[in-house]
Amino acid sequence: MALETQYPITLLTKIAGVSRSAYYRYKNKPKPITIGIEELILFIYKKSGQRKGYRTITDTLRNHYHLIVNKKKVLRIMQENGIQSVIRKKRKPKAENATLKENILNRDFETDTPYKKLVTDITYIPTRRQMVYLCIILDLYNNEPLAWTVSDQQDKSLSVDTIKQLSRKCSLKDTLIHSDQGVHYTNKEYVNLLEELSVIQSMSRKGNCWDRSLCRKLLRSF
After folding, report:
1. Which CATH number belongs to the domain containing residue 172 in this structure?
2. Is the pTM of the predicted complex or chain greater than 0.85?
C-alpha cells in the first residue's frame, strides 16, 4: 500500500496483473477482526453497561462487526466468564394520595346491632356483551346486602357511589366499614366521604382477604 504514494496506481496494477477496480475492491474491503471473539463479546458487554444479553450481543456482532456467531456460542462464552445482562426491575407506580387504615375489624364478625359492622368488596361478572363490575356492602349483623353498584367501568366511582347510596338510606355515624387496601378504598375521595359521614374505616393487611371472607362468599352467589 505504501507504493501507491510513490507510483501511479495504473502502473502498479499493470505490474501486479490486476485491474484498477479489483485493486480498489481489495483496498476498501473491511479489515478483518483481529481481536478474539471472546474478547470482543466482553468488550461489547462492558460497553453496554452490562445491560446487553447474549441475543443482543449476537446481533451487535452481526450488524456492527460483520461476524456471524451462533447465539449458543455467545451464551456459552458469557457463562464461562460469569457474566449476564443486568435486568432492571420496573418499578410499580404507587397509587397517588392513597390512605391506609388499620385493621379495626380484625376478624371479629360478631355484632348484635345492625349497621354497626359492614364489609365491602368489588368483583367482576362476565356477561355475553362485556365484563361488568359489582361493588357491594354487606351488614355483618345478618349478612344482608345493604347497597350495591354495577358498572362497566372499574373506577373509584364504584365504591363512592355505593357509599352514597347507603348514606341516603340510613345514618352511618360511628359505623365501621371494612375493606381491602385496593385503590377503590384508599383514594382521597372515598376516604374523605367516609370521614364526612363519620364512618370508621378499617382495612385488611396487604395480601390478607380473610376479613372479607363473608362478603366474598356472598359475591360468589351473584
Report:
1. 3.30.420.10
2. no
